[in-house]
Specification:
Residues 305-350 are annotated as: Disordered. The protein is built from 11 helices and 15 strands. With 350 residues, the chain is α/β, with parallel strands linked by helices. The chain has 2 domains: 2-216, Rossmann fold, CATH 3.40.50.300; 222-284, Alpha-Beta Plaits (2-Layer Sandwich), CATH 3.30.70.100. The structure holds adenosine-5'-triphosphate and magnesium ion (MG). Residues 40-41, 152 line the site of magnesium ion (MG).
């Protein structure tokens, strides 16, 4: 278990981490998400005692990292895979870490085997590719067989086989009851790997909830409705009837209708009352990527001028039963949400 309370880090007048409180629980993979420069790596460094908080504190299994007896046996981390002595071979690199931490030497062979680097164990690490370096970093994190694991962007540079392997590794470590805290910018991968999410932007907590709750809270689910292709009258009649019933109806490219604001049974009833037959009535949920983009829009510091978030759908509005806002605009207020507390919403005071 990792617990941060009011964790804050300032560098001069820059507040990298701002009053962050959250828990990372054992037995599940917790994804740590946030735009570039939002404070993820800084938070991880404070968890590992590599940076001292300006205010607040963070504990691992109840103690600050620096107070843990033989910390590498309890906590393993991959922060920067390039932080290795390039002149050493992979085996000696890991052996030196093991010897410094009182970890038996046979663990070096075990983890090299686990990450698939046994064949290159005698090669100097300065000749390693990006992905080989990531694998070596993951091996170092696993060396002490720790209960708590932190990975900062572990799939960075890995090939598809490696990404799948990391996904399965994280899940199996969590299934063994370990605490797994992993940052990533790959939303599709996080959707498959993480059970729970901690989302930050500009150092502040935006959301702390399960992946499922996060998507539900930050995206409008919708229904796809298709009527027989026998002319526009049926579509128009259904669109009018649904709109009268309080739904929002948008045309899809393939001729179907995207309906929000009404549950599926009600859509079916409205169609029946309007004497319109349906060929499709299906529920749809937004992706994690879409939900994340909505939550963090307006909170991203570094964005290409050529990519003004084309195609973004509007964010749902708290308090509106249909969850639909036609255009929240780029400066829409962010909504910090704790699953345990029920939704709370506040305006960004910046
Ligand atoms: N040692 C430092 N000195 C000064 N500023 C720092 C230092 N470390 C981090 N920062 C600043 O703190 C902010 C948060 O940085 P951090 O590396 O934690 O972000 P991040 O969420 O990990 O970003 P990314 O997704 O790009 O890895 C940034 O504005 C960064 O410039
Ligand atoms: Mg980082």
């Amino acid at each position: 278990m990792i617990e941060a309370v009011g964790l804050t880090k300032r560098y001069g007048d820059k507040t990298a981490v701002d009053d962050l409180s959250f828990q990372v629980r054992p037995g599940m993979v917790t994804g740590f998400l946030g735009p570039n420069g939002s404070g993820k790596s800084t938070t991880m460094r404070m968890i590992l005692g590599l940076d001292t908080p300006t205010a607040g504190h963070v504990t691992v299994n109840g103690s600050p990292y620096r107070s843990l007896p033989n910390a590498p046996r309890h906590v393993g981390a991959l922060l920067d895979a390039k932080a290795v002595h390039g002149g050493r071979d992979a085996y000696r690199h890991l052996l030196s870490i093991a010897q410094l931490s009182g970890i038996p030497a046979h663990r070096v062979d075990d983890v090299l085997e686990l990450v698939g680097l046994s064949e290159v164990a005698g090669r100097r690490t300065k000749g390693f590719s990006l992905g080989m370096g990531q694998r070596l970093g993951i091996a170092a994190a696993l060396l002490g067989d720790p209960q708590v694991l932190l990975f900062d962007e572990p799939v960075n540079g890995l090939d598809p086989e490696g990404i799948l392997w990391v996904r399965n590794l994280m899940k199996s470590l969590a299934a063994e009851g370990r605490t797994v805290f992993v940052s990533s910018h790959l939303m599709s991968e996080m959707a498959l790997t993480a059970d729970h999410l901690v989302v930050i932007a500009r150092g502040r907590l935006l959301a702390d909830m399960s992946v499922r709750e996060f998507i539900a809270a930050n995206s409008a689910g919708f229904a796809r409705v298709r009527v027989p292709d026998t002319g526009p009258q049926q579509r128009e009649a259904l669109t009018a009837a649904l709109t009268r019933a309080g739904a929002q109806v948008l045309p899809e490219q393939d001729g179907a209708l995207r309906v929000t604001g009404l549950p599926l049974p009600r859509i079916s009833d409205v169609a029946h009352e309007a004497e319109v037959r349906l060929w499709e009535l299906s529920p749809h949920h937004a992706s994690l990527e879409e939900a994340y983009m909505r939550l963090t829009q307006g909170m991203v510091d570094y964005r290409s001028s050529a990519d003004p978030q084309i195609g973004m759908r509007p964010a749902p509005v708290p308090g509106r039963s249909d969850g639909w806002d036609p255009d929240p605009g780029p400066g829409a207020p962010f909504q910090p949400v704790h699953a345990a507390d029920g939704p709370t919403f506040s305006k960004d005071p910046r």
